[in-house]
Write a structure and sequence with these properties.
Layout (H helix, E strand, L loop, with lengths): L10 H23 L6 H6 L2 H19 L11 H27 L10 H33 L3 E5 L3 H12 L6 E7 L8 E2 L2 E5 L3 H8 L1 E6 L6 H13 L3 E4 L17 E2 L2 H4 L9 H8 L3 E5 L4 H11 L5 E6 L2 H13 L6 E5 L5 H11 L3 E4 L6 H5 L2 H21 L4 E7 L8 H16 L6 E7 L1 E3 L5 H10 L4 E3 L5 E2 L1 E3 H14 L5 E4 L5 E2 H11 L10 E3 L19 E3 L5 E4 L6 H9 L1 H7 L2 H11 L11 H6 L12
Parallel strand pairs: 1-2, 1-5, 2-4, 5-6, 8-9, 8-11, 9-10, 11-12, 12-13, 13-18, 14-17, 15-20
Antiparallel strand pairs: 3-4, 6-7, 16-19, 18-22, 21-22
Length: about 650
Amino acid sequence: MSIFSKKYAPRWIVFLIDVFICVASIIIAYLLRFNFEIPDNERKIGDLKQIVELVMFVRVASFLIAKTYAGIVRYTGARDTRRILITVASGSLALVVINIVCYRSGITQAFIVPMSILIIEFLTTTFFMVSLRFLVKSIFFDFRSTVRNNNVIVYGTDRNALAAKNALEDDHNAHYKVVAFVDDIDKKSINKINDLPIYPIDELETLIVELDARNLLVAKPFQTIEKKQEVIELGLNSGLTILNVPKVEKWINGELSSKQIRNIKIEDLLERNPIQLDFKRIQEQVKGKTMLVTGAAGSIGSEIVRQLIRFEPHNIVLFDQAETPMYDIEMELRDSQSASNITIVIGDITDQQRVEEVFNEYKPEIVYHAAAYKHVPMMENNPVEAVRNNVIGTRLIADMAVKYGVKRFVMVSTDKAVNPTNVMGASKRIAEIYTQSLNGKSATRFITTRFGNVLGSNGSVIPRFKKQIEEGGPITVTHPQITRYFMTIPEACQLVLEAGASGKGGEIFIFDMGKSVKIVDLAKKMIKLSGLELGRDIQITFTGLRPGEKLYEELLANKENTIPTPHPQIMVAKVREYDHDEANSKIEGFLPLIAEQDNYKVVKLMKEIVPEFISQNSIYEELDREAKPKHRLMVAAV
């Protein structure tokens, strides 16, 4: 097989080339030292052939010991250069020792190899060995870049940007080539980085054409989230694939790996300024206490567990009926050495015997109730199960919290409970009503937290869009005008902990979800982030609103309906107080209907308890048309 058909040049070829360089270097050293005319007396000191043999013996021995030939030439770096320098210097030192020993012992009347020759030979050998390697590397990368164009413009000019450039170009599988740097400057800078010019970020669109760039590598830390989003949007609108450099503290052993440079995520475009938590107050509430987290295998419940662990609780009881996801979160926590204070309990929140056993055995002091059915179309088709789990299950957990003296009960609710148009939202609203009605009946403080869609949570549009993009599309959006509020999972759970620690009981805390986002715009951005073009590579199709779905969701996050709190991102909804006996009596009415499995009767009772529940795009709209004006026991204030 030809050596050129191999992936890398054989080591013996590299070794022979190094040997040839040494032979040439000693000859060049003699010629340079004596101006290309070697005197006769120098030739008499020792036959030139014997001198070459001596130098070669020392060099070959040092190469074999140091294995300078073992590295892949095309990926030569600073470490290879350092190893060559040390190896050649060690060989030269050995020759100096041989010179001195032979001269002092009388074996020779003069140094075998003149010291001046040794110095020139050392410099020449080192220069050619290093230069040849970098020349091969340069030719290889230039050739590779012509085979596959993947030019990159780097945003930033600090050490992060330089490290990112080197990491990209050293990755032989990525085929990246950095062609320019851009930064926040007013005009073209005369400065360069590694012989590459620095341009103002405003010239990005022009540079894309001039340099045939395909990627924008964001290597510069941003002062504000707004600036980060501005730069990313500029790159996306210019048709570039956006690459992101992780924070320095995440680099491996202080060095950036090309494997850590990844495409920007949609979460980065929806990111907001970091939430400032009152860590001291949360720690006072959590440290040394036993927590119970229901729905702990879900996206929200599992993140609440991750957030709680850092506040040093005595024990966190993870309660869920989903066996495999519970196993996954347990393995994750054990791998991160955070599992010493967690207890895994499999069970159903509607199973009274199992729930009571958990409360009796572990006696939690704080309960975070995140267990719920939450998929709108699914619950629209299964109202009996929505009520059984979200209402009856919540009532059971709340009643046990009172019975066993839980100090705080924090319920995770949803913006879909506001003026609900679907069964799921109405079931969560009834659960809110019941837990609020319990506040003040015992020492347990009942606190409700309400927020919108969570990025990346199970069943959210982000994972679904990603899957559709991977499969080549189309991306399905229900309506061109549909909007939603979004928050990242860590953000939502941090605010849950903050509200849970600051609540006095009876409140419904509403989180600042920022601006609502058009789902179709979200889909378009995800297509761009994937390096695809809408209409050419992938399509968006509109499927129509699903059962129970509405165009716009509400949080009641305005001055008329909310009360501010010391935390700028948390507000309290103005709601009426509910009579516990009345609320409990209405919920009791569900039990025979659940036994009958009568969906229509269940939804009808839900509408009586929550008068503002008006179905949309649902078979239960006829119940609204049939309803006659009458007094309802509960008049909603939300």
